[in-house]
């Protein structure tokens, strides 16, 4: 899609976070006259932007600037319903996402991964499978490295493994993955999307521009994924860990297995899997499906899985204090992800739960918690909702800060048990992002360990 040109065009980038800044710099290199519009009154990179001849407008989005633009590029953190953005759209100004912008200039093929949970695990592991095979792959998108910052290194032999969120997908126009992966679908982000249908429609855009020459990897364990995949034209490759498959990638006979009319082929033995939880096994199975479609040898995939011990803030073992394990799953930002995390552990569980609630029902955690005799420490804006949903059957304690939460959880915990941070909420009421929340949890555990002293540590 290298014919796309912005030379001489007036382009407004809305949002001065990582994706917006990368888009602004890329657009400038491609000859556009760029303005960055930001709601905040201060931006740390303002001098660097101005030095690059990028105009900066702070403290709000000026409608006259937006209406005069030839193109608007929207950062994923900015809603298309923001009044100035919506007015510019009604005025006829083209508005696209940062991922859409970057993809128009990529030369390499795209593997795109979406879903309500598990995107980062699948994206990173897929990238490592390509690395292990000797093929050149770059990992980016929602996972932390803006796709716009990778355009200049894109050549025809590069594979771009891209994590994409509903926020990034909803304003795509031409975005076409070679392989599109949808891991799962459950209610989320109702702080941004008006309904589950709107959220699902945004996710379904990952398939919209694919053709019969492309492939889609879809979770046969998830009826909602199967539903949105029906709109796709690409060749389907199903994966599942629970649903029996006659064709596809599944778990059978202690291995991740390719099942076809010609018989079964063992791809990865389960003994190679180093991460806990059925949901993470599902992510690994999805990555194996991608690897098989891309022609990666099963021995190579196995080596990649053997060396993969998980991601920071995803069921990350932090340490053990007084015989109690502390596990950081700050990336569990919705109820479905939190329930999956809970089900990785047995009795003696203390769950740190809460933040800015997005969607779902805390009531859906009751059974998993009560069968483990678990206690809950409630944190952040969602504390009243947590109490209403759970306190009739589960011991719920209030905490004001992460330090308080860890201290309360430590008092509730018992040797052999686990304190789990799996908030089922966004972090933005108290923290910059989920990573900052996870880091605060780890600092609090380290401080607790220092207070307990070496004689009492396991």
Q: How does this structure look, described?
A:
With 458 residues, this protein is α/β, with parallel strands linked by helices. The chain folds into three domains: 10-93, Rossmann fold (3-Layer(aba) Sandwich); 100-306, UDP-N-acetylmuramoyl-L-alanine:D-glutamate ligase (3-Layer(aba) Sandwich); 316-452, Mur ligase, C-terminal domain (Protein-Tyrosine Phosphatase, Chain A, Alpha-Beta Complex), CATH 3.90.190.20. It is 32% helix and 22% strand. It contains 16 helices and 20 strands. It has helices spanning 18-29, 46-51, 63-67, 83-90, 98-103, 119-133, 166-169, 196-204, 223-229, 278-293, 298-306, 335-342, 366-370, 383-390, 402-412, 434-452, and strands spanning 10-14, 33-38, 55-58, 71-74, 95-97, 109-114, 137-141, 159-163, 179-182, 215-219, 235-239, 248-252, 255-260, 263-269, 316-321, 324-328, 349-353, 375-379, 395-399, 418-421. It has a six-stranded parallel beta sheet, with helices on both faces. A six-stranded mixed beta sheet has the order 15-16-20-17-18-19, with helices on both faces. The protein has a five-stranded parallel beta sheet with strand order 3-2-1-4-5. Helix 4 links the parallel strand 4 and strand 5. Helix 6 (119-133) crosses helix 10 and helix 6 (119-133) packs across helix 11. It is globular, with a radius of gyration of 23 Å. The protein starts with 9 loop residues before the first strand and ends in a 6-residue tail after the last helix. Mean pLDDT is 94; it is low at 454-458.
